[in-house]
């Protein structure tokens, strides 16, 4: 059964005609530059949650190290990632049509909702966005990081502290404490990512009437926040793009010592099987294809289909002028008089 359109479809160009330059660009964007735009949008999305999250981490670590009062906190880090994830979903997802998370891209490939070629493109974009965000934060905090690094070298503590959760490199890359048991960290990572995956799949479920599309980004963002507040102290990555992009940034700045050892594999890879397991758990246990789709999700589906049909039919090639439409209407009314 197909969705019945109960509301008129109104395109932005019908109400607010774009300038000629923008109209020409949208013509090219919908045809030749479509994948490039999606790549940039996906990279921007991972940038938007990495930047505030890592920025909050930088403030907290530098505040503790330099004994600067009220500079950063664990709550600020959780809020940085939570709000960043919500903003990334709201702003970038409509354009990228991606996942902002390599684990969910792989899950979509397995569920045959995304091609392997497009999935590879999205994963590269995700890591690039995180990498750029981490490099920018390093440059912005350079005046605070440099004296800390110099101080560690002067005290002979560089090798012992630098590449730990308490060291300056811990701003960009994720590290485990030297005495930590990696088995417990793996368990912590898997359970947290499993939890997040269930929340995300539930948020995108069109039959979930308790989570309309306007609420979904904030629910997903908060799922990251509560995991950070409760379990980041044990060791938590939750997103391969954030981990790999940040680690490459640390390697670019400080060399191979910033690699992270065996923990690097846990941080980068554990969330992938955990996400797949969480997604399948929702599909087989909590989901139900016999349920009806909510009205809010119907509107989203109808709008997406109308947008795709507009592009396929070449509707973006010729935007009618609103003034011209009004003038034609006025002329018709004058003719009647």
What's the topology here?
Blueprint: H1 12-15, H2 20-29, H3 34-65, H4 74-91, H5 93-96, H6 102-110, H7 116-140, H8 142-155, H9 158-161, H10 182-204, H11 216-231, H12 240-254, H13 263-269, H14 271-286, H15 295-312, H16 322-336
Helix pairs in contact: 3-4, 3-7, 4-11, 6-7, 6-14, 7-12, 10-11, 10-14, 12-13
GO molecular function: glycerol channel activity; water channel activity
Family: Belongs to the MIP/aquaporin (TC 1.A.8) family.
Transmembrane segments: 33-51, 71-93, 120-140, 184-204, 216-238
Task: Give a short summary of the structure.
With 337 residues, the protein is mostly helical. The protein has helices at residues 12-15, 20-29, 34-65, 74-91, 93-96, 102-110, 116-140, 142-155, 158-161, 182-204, 216-231, 240-254, 263-269, 271-286, 295-312, 322-336.
Structure, explained:
With 337 residues, this protein is mainly α. 68% of the residues lie in helices and 0% in strands. The chain contains 16 helices and no strands. The chain has helices at 12-15, 20-29, 34-65, 74-91, 93-96, 102-110, 116-140, 142-155, 158-161, 182-204, 216-231, 240-254, 263-269, 271-286, 295-312, 322-336. The longest helix is centred in the N-terminal third of the chain and has 32 residues, at 34-65. The model is unreliable at 316-337 (pLDDT under 50).
Which class in CATH terms? Mainly Alpha
- What is the domain total for the residues? 1
What would the CATH topology be? Glycerol uptake facilitator protein
Span between termini: 47 Å
Counting H and I runs of at least 4 residues, what is the number of helices? 16
């Amino acid at each position: 059964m197909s969705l019945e359109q109960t509301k008129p479809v109104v395109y932005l160009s019908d109400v607010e005609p774009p300038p000629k330059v923008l109209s020409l660009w949208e013509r090219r964007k919908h045809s030749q530059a479509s994948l490039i735009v999606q790549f940039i949008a996906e990279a921007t999305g991972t940038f938007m949650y990495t930047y505030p999250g890592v920025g909050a981490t930088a403030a907290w670590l530098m505040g503790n190290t330099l004994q600067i009062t009220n500079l950063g906190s664990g709550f600020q880090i959780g809020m940085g990632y939570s709000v960043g994830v919500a903003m990334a979903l709201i702003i970038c997802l409509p354009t990228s049509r991606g996942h902002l998370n390599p684990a969910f891209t792989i899950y979509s490939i397995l569920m045959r909702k995304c091609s392997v070629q497009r999935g590879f493109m999205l994963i590269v974009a995700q890591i690039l966005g995180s990498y750029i965000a981490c490099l920018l934060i390093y440059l912005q905090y350079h005046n605070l990081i440099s004296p800390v690094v110099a101080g560690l070298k002067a005290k002979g503590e560089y090798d012992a502290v630098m590449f730990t959760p308490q060291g300056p490199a811990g701003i960009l890359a994720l590290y485990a404490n030297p005495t930590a048991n990696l088995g417990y960290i793996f368990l912590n990572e898997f359970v947290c990512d499993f939890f997040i995956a269930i929340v995300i799949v539930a948020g995108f479920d069109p039959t979930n009437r308790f989570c309309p599309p306007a609420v979904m980004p904030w629910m997903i963002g908060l799922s990251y926040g509560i995991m950070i507040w409760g379990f980041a102290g044990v060791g938590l990555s939750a997103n391969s793009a954030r981990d790999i992009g940040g680690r490459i940034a640390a390697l670019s700045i400080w060399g191979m010592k910033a690699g992270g050892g065996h923990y690097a594999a846990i941080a980068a890879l554990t969330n992938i099987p955990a996400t797949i397991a969480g997604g399948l758990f929702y599909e087989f246990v909590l989901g139900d294809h016999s349920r009806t789709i909510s009205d809010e999700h119907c509107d989203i589906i109808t709008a997406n289909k109308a947008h795709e049909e507009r592009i396929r039919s070449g509707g973006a090639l010729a935007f009618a002028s609103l003034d011209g439409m009004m003038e034609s209407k006025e002329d018709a009314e004058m003719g009647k008089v």
